[in-house]
User: What shape does this take?
Amino acid sequence: MRIFLATLVFCLAASCSAPKTSDETPPGQIGEPAADEVDLADANEGGEKTIEEMRAESLAAIDREACEGAGGEVRQEGMLGMYRCVKSYADAGKTCRSKSDCEGKCLATDDAMPDEETVGACQADDSPFGCYAEVEDGKITNAICVD
Assistant: This one.
């Protein structure tokens, strides 16, 4: 742990070197300002959307009535907080041994151990976000974290 901390401090110190003078040009970026010199007010010149604009578009693209009518809930998800219609599965929490036992995925429970025979629980809803391990044929298979 001490070696890790010493390395981290060294790396931070190295990145905090003296500021560049205006006549220095970063390698491979002739005539362009360094990333830390870009005026953020000009960042949207190329027509790029802000996170707020993308969130508003994701919300506008959802038919809230249709979502709720199908048993869904409109909510923000993922690291970027985009809006989605998340639908619950009728068999949520049911004991399973494979995906074929569920509407969604068969997910390992917290007490499941790799390489051991196990049962899982059917996925609660169709949200792809979070960390989970799938169960197939009574064994833990794919583990993934989706942001």
The first strand starts at residue 72 and ends at 77.
